Amino acid sequence: GSTTINIQRNPSFSMINSDDINYFRDILDDNTVIQDEDRLSSANIDWMRKYKGSSKLLLLPKDTDEVSKILRYCNSRRLAVVPQGGNTGLVGGSVPVYDEVIVNVGLMNKIISLDKVSGILKCEAGCILQNLDSFLANECYLMPIDLGAKGSCQIGGNVSTNAGGLHFVRYGSLHGNVLGLEVVLADGTVLDMLGSLRKDNTGYDLKHLFIGSEGTLGIITKVSILTPARLSSTNLAFLACEDYSSCQELLLKAKRGLGEVLSAFEFLDTNSMDLVLDKLEGVRNPFPSSLHKFYVLIETTGTDDSYDRAKLETFLVNSMEGGLISDGVIAQDINQASSFWRIREGITEALMKAGAVYKYDLSLPVEKLYDIVVEMQLRLGSSAKVCGYGHLGDGNLHLNISTPNYDDNVFAQIEPFVYEWTAEHRGSISAEHGLGLMKADKIHYSKSTETVRLMASIKKLVDPNGIMNPYKVLPQSIYSP
Ligand code: FAD
Ligand code: 2HG
Ligand code: ZN
Q1: Which ligand has its closest atom nearest to the C-alpha of 433?
Q2: Relative to the alpha carbon of 125, which ligand is closest?
Q3: C or N terminus of the chain, fewer CB within 10 Å?
């Protein structure tokens, strides 16, 4: 079922009327002012089908100028706006809470340029991540970010959430890879920050404000991003461990022993594996004899296949001899590699099929990271299945609790416990998915009062009427005098 929200509609926002619709029809192309029930109903609900709004209008601008006109008008009329990309977000940030106008830049999907020497790509924000990566593949480059939703998420959405993903351990954060942005502010001002320089220390680096601000400060319309060379040899190992401390030891050994070729270090526990095998069709257990306690995926990417493969094989043999892993296999071809990735990337989908899911995305010191999974399972007993998996190489745990049906009692056992535990261990309550609607009023678990206050001042400065993605990211209390 969908989540109930106890936030009041901000009474300073206007309601859409027929004059507004006429204005948008005037300035936009045919078929880009959408009032169709079916299309609106899918744009009103999020990927998890947990958050549901009641917007009456979806706009599909085709260029920056149209985005600017839309926002200028909405700001003057005090019409609230929710920017939406591929709508794959997992915190309820991409859908309206009430009747906000949905603006999706999906038609702005042109590649502007690729500098073939530096690997700097400029494109419009509506480009789908996978399409960008396919384009780059022809040029021997690669997107520095990869995630399970790549077939539908947009680069503008990735930047707005500062998405992490599977290759973060190698290529780092979008704060490092994004070199420039073009952004439209609430009043229609177009900020051209679309630089393509690696180094530029001229004043405040404002693009960083928009990376990870989840659509609350403006709409991203263009992106300039540094893309790494696509190397010829990729290898993937799927390993089984019998305790969490072995997974940690394996990470340390992988950083030291695989060094420059390490490109992913992911893990999942037995409950996650069990769920994927049970819920997803065509998924096979690489070690069919039994379930192990933990599984680790280690990917290497380098330039010399025989050298890289020998390196991974030696690593595997040493880990086996040292008792760190109880089983292990290296993918023999690209099909086997994608079947391994399917297991890891399919967990989110398997959880959806299993019933209700309570989803948390935590940054924690690696040595403490799995303790919360164990504690949570003890707290909840057999009434719930607690799954722990994620980007171990980055200290990012995806804690997901699955029950057949939504249950208030289970929820009361989880929150605020999970946030308090995370704050106590100086972790983050959102490692990579953002705060969205789900965690807007939880920000204080990870940020000090003074910090939140400065964020609120910036929000008020950039968007004085508060029309950009209201109710999201910052607690509602910052708006009351
Ligand atoms: P949306 O979901 O449409 O929007 C997300 C947020 O960005 C919203 O607040 C929205 O208002 C804002 N926004 C969107 N476009 C713009 C724009 N042009 N300008 C301003 N604001 C905008 N996330 C990770 O970090 N790592 C993962 O590994 C990962 N894996 C995932 C796997 C699956 C199967 C799914 C369903 C999701 C996953 N996610 C992951 C979460 C999600 O995919 C990412 O957050 C993604 O970056 C969202 O992109 P999107 O285009 O779908 O944005
Ligand atoms: C992943 O790493 C995504 O698979 C989704 O970030 C995690 O569903 C989740 O909790
Ligand atoms: Zn993730």
Answers
A1: 1
A2: 1
A3: C
